[in-house]
Amino acid sequence: MKKYLYPLIALALVGCVRDIKEEIQYPIEQSLTINEATGLKFEGPSINDASQFNFKVETGGTYYIVVKDHFKNVISKSQIKTNIGDNVLRFYTNAIPDGDYFIEFKDPQDNVIESNKITIQ
Predict the structure, then answer these.
(1) Which of 29, 71, 99, 121 sits a CA distance of 20 to 30 A from 20?
(2) Regarding the domain with residue range 24-120, which homologous superfamily does it belong to in the CATH classification?
């Protein structure tokens, strides 16, 4: 009986151990530097999959990236966690068709913090 009990206890203990998460912080390139206290800056007027952007905020927390088409229909909505100051992140566009879009950054109360028109290629 002990030979079955010990492995089950060990398995239960290993299953309860917290996973270690490593936050990836990308270095701020000169083209993404924001001199103001807050702001939004992309690598250029058009982006492709995994393009970097800088979202600078005075208050860290949860924000939402909302992608809208010309008719203001929501194409995509993603949640991001930010720190105070510069937040250099990657924008993944594989699931979004090529074209011109409005990208809005909103707080949890649905207030638009930053907005930008950008071409996705």
Answers:
(1) 29
(2) Macroglobulin (MG2) domain (2.60.40.1930)
Read off the pTM.
0.70
Please state, in angstroms and rounded to a whole number, the distance separating the CA atoms of residues 13 and 8: 9
What would the pLDDT profile of 53-71 be if each residue is shown by its tens digit? 999 999 989 999 999 998 9
Cα–Cα nearest to 40, from 70, 75, 80, 73: 80
Show Cβ contacts of residue 114 under 8 Å, excluding neighbours closer than 6 positions. Answer: 38, 39, 40, 55, 104, 105
First to last CA, the chain: 62
Which residue type sits at 86? Answer: D
C-alpha 13/C-alpha 55 separation (Å) is 40
Q: What are 60's two structure tokens?
A: 């860290």
Three-state DSSP class for residue 33:
coil
